[in-house]
Structure formats: C-alpha cells, structure tokens
Amino acid sequence: MNLEVFKFGGASVKDAASIKNVANIIQHHASRPLLVVVSALGKTTNALENMLQAKIKNEDWKPFLIDLQQHHATILQQLNLPTNLLESLFIELEKKIEVVGKLQYDFHYDQIVSFGEMLSTSIVATYLNQRNNNTVLLDARTLIATDNNYRDVNILWKETEKQVTENVLPQLQNNKIVLTQGFIGSTKDGFSTTLGREGSDYSASIFSYCLDAELMTIWKDVNGVMNADPKQFSDAEVIPQLSYYEAIEMTFYGAKVIHPKTIKPLQNKHIQLMVRSFIDSKTEGTKIFETNLHISYPPVKVWKENQVLVSIQTRDFSFIGEKHLQKIFEVLATFRISMNVMQNGAISFSCCVDSNPRLEAALDVLHQEFKILTNENLHLATIRHYDEKTIADLTKGKEILVEQKSRHTIQFVLK
User: Collapsing DSSP states into helix, strand and coil, what is residue 369?
Assistant: First the structure.
C-alpha cells in the first residue's frame, strides 16, 4: 500500500499558526496513503493534570477548565471553525472530573487526561476537511486495545491488530487521510487508558506495525535526533542516521527524542523511522533503520535531574544475595519504580531512580526488612561513545557518587 504514518506532537499543534503548518505538511504528502497521529495541544496535558490534582485536593479546579476552554476557543476562532465544535467534549470532561475521588488515582488520571487528544484531533480533522482534504477522524480508543494497568498499559496486540485492520484499512483504501489520537487506548470494558507520557510516538509505531507501513515519520521542533538536548547543551548536533539498536540504547538511557517503546514494533517489521522538523520540513532529518554497517557516532550526552540514590543494606550484616535482590526488585516493580543505575556490594544494593511520589511508599515497605539510606537532588550523566573531553566537561565541579563504565557507555551519579 506504500503507507506512511505521521506523528505530530503537542508543540507542532500548540496554536492556530502551528495547526496551519501541520495541515500544509499533510497536504504536501497527501498523494500517498497517510495515517496521522496527533497529540494534545501544547501544555494541555499539564493543564488537565493540574485540574485533576486540584479536584483530588478539594481545591477549585474550574479555573483550569475555563482556561482550557478559552485556549481552544481562541484557536477555533482563528481557524474559522464552528465555535461549538468541542462543546460536547467539554461537557463530558466536566462530568468526569466531578466524580473523581482520591482512590484509584491512575484510573481517574487516564479518564481525564485522555481528553487532550480528543480535543486536538477534533480541531485538526475539521480544519483539514475545511481545506478540502479528504480526512476521517477515528477514535484511537476503538483501535488500540490495552489491559487495565492505567497510566502504563500493555498493548493487547491480537485485538489491536484486528481492530486497526477492520477500521483503518477500508478508509485508507477509499483514499481517506486517517487522523487519530496518540497516547490513548481503551480496556475491553471501554475505559480510557494512556500509554505513558510522550506515548504518541508509541501509538504511531503500533499503527505502523499493524498496517505494515513503509515509513513512519515523527515531526519535531528540532532538525532530527541530536546527540544531546539542545536546551541543555549548546554544542548539540544532528545525527544523520541511527541503527535501531543505537536508538533503543539512547532512549533507554533517557534521551527524550522518542518514546522508549517506539522502536521495537518498527524493528519487528523492518519499518524505517524518520525524525524531521516541522519548522523546516525541507531538512532531511534523521533516518533510523536496521543496518549492519558501522556508523560512527559523536558522544551522545543524556543529563537527568531530580535523581535519588537509594542504598539498601541488610540489617544483620549478611551478604546481599539473590533472595534479597528478588525482594527489592519485587517491591520496586510493584510501585513502578524504574532503576536508572544499579550497583551491588557485599551487604548493600544501591540504585539511582527518578524522584517519584511513589518512591516513599516503596521504601517504607523495604524498610521493614532493610536499612535504607537516600541521597536526593542528584544528577545522572550518561555518555554513549564517550571520550575524555566529554567526561571532563560533564563532571567538572561535581562530586561523583557512583560511576559505571562499559565498552560504549559511561554513567555518573553526581552531586
């Protein structure tokens, strides 16, 4: 079918001018079968999170809703779209926020935050059709089937493939541009779920996999995959091409250019991924593909803040063994705490994790059996393809608490 899948994030649809630009890009490529995945308008997810937090704390949440309505109304007006286009969605959102309670936070989170994508895609689809693009809007919650592990779901692949094939394929065959939401799916009971923050990349790769796409393109505000975050490092440069393996390694260590789960579905079917700029769509961007060729990479720098170093020690001075480690891993997994670095000693086990509201509860459980020490407000520096100059630059003026080094990667927990 020669299908291409596009993904546009929140920054690409943050205002009316941005939506017009996205429409121009889509229209330029509309001669081939096209499925387009769109995130919530920029900062909308944060606003919905703030609204949810206010409701749980019994604070006034309505100002957040009013601001959200006004922002979307302004965009509707600037795009000359019907002023009542989003009315039913906002009524439904208000009803759902009214019934939120303190229990089952993750469940309520997914029901509320998923509205961001529903709002944005209603605007983009209507605008595309206003410009005479033959566009159909499909609800991703009827396409992507998930379990009920809210906020971090697992995809039910067999059900998802069936739903995507039955609902999307006929529209593409009828020369429709298919527009749908990123980030969201639903359980078999019809409750909304989310795929994790920045999960729209993953959504696009799921659709690419199910439809045997030839190419997937992520449109971003940078010219491609860079060897460092340009907001943190002024010398960041574009990497023209990456292997699947290298892309997975970069995302695993925290590079934010694409969602960590994005690559696997693409690699499984050898689907090429492009990362391109929606600001300058003429630039070539970065190609991510399967290759056995040797690619020379510059040092890739990942800097993570708000890190916590946790030291877990046995109380009776016994060695940390497999049973102790099993207990530690089980507790951290239960509370969904991911370890960025881990290190084993004779009577202690240390790990560096992101600061997380669930961390305190996890450590309370572990404290029943172990002695726990923590060091907060730390930084984690990771360098792929390191050299001495990059190491010196990143660690200058910092105290190194933990260092781990392998053939291609070095990591420092810094104070």
Answer: coil
Backbone angles phi, psi at 170, to 5 degrees: -60, -35
Work out the pLDDT band at 311, boundaries 50, 70, 90. Answer: very high
What are the start and end residues of each CATH 3.40.1160.10 domain in the chain? 4-220
**Per-residue pLDDT tens for 85-104?**
999 999 999 999 999 987 79
CATH for the 4-220 domain, from 3.20.20.140, 3.40.50.1260, 3.40.1160.10, 3.40.50.150? 3.40.1160.10
SS3 label, residue 241:
strand
Overall average pLDDT of the 219-231 stretch: 93
CA-CA distance, 87 to 141, in Å (whole number)?
A: 20
pLDDT at 257 over 80: no
Rounded to whole angstroms, the Cα distance separating 351 from 140 reads 37
385 dihedral zone (left: phi>0; alpha: psi -120 to 50; beta): left
- Write out the H or E segment, with its range, that includes residue 160: helix 157-167
Average pLDDT, the chain: 95
As its CATH architecture, domain 300-414 has 2-Layer Sandwich (3.30)
